[in-house]
Amino acid sequence: MLRNSTVAAWEEVGRPDKGSRPGEGEIVARTASGGAVPRYSAAIPTQGMDGDVEAMALYAGQSAGLVGDVRSAAELVEALVREAEDCLNRLR
């Protein structure tokens, strides 16, 4: 799970158990159909939600731990092109 404002607030008060967590039960978002999403819910942000979706569960797989830097799409494409050109040049 990615760290967010909910996790930070929970850690700040010593990681209390269910029933004693800060903001527990507070509605942080609404689904596209108007359903309430409380803080600490296992619900994930989906299209059409409204509210503080950053405070919801933000799951990530093991590969998220391998991220070493954040680059723009332009930087990624430039690196991909450069690496492809290098590879093609070595094959010549």
Would you give an account of this structure?
The chain is an alpha+beta fold and 92 residues long. It has a domain at 5-67. The chain has 2 helices and 3 strands, in the order H-E-E-E-H. The protein has helices spanning 5-12, 73-91, and strands at residues 27-30, 36-38, 50-51. A 3-stranded antiparallel beta sheet has the order 2-1-3, with no helix packed on it. The model has no long low-confidence stretch (mean pLDDT 93).
Topology:
Blueprint (H helix, E strand, L loop, with lengths): L4 H8 L14 E4 L5 E3 L11 E2 L21 H19 L1
Antiparallel strand pairs: 1-2, 1-3
Low-pLDDT runs? none
Gyration radius, rounded: 20 Å
Helix content: 25-40%
Helix-strand pattern, N to C?
HEEEH
- The structural class is alpha+beta
Biggest sheet record: 3 strands, antiparallel
Number of helical regions: 2
Summary of the model, kept short:
With 92 residues, the protein is an alpha+beta fold. The chain has helices at 5-12, 73-91; strands at 27-30, 36-38, 50-51.
How would you describe this structure in keywords?
elongated, three-stranded antiparallel beta sheet, alpha+beta, 2 helices, 92 residues
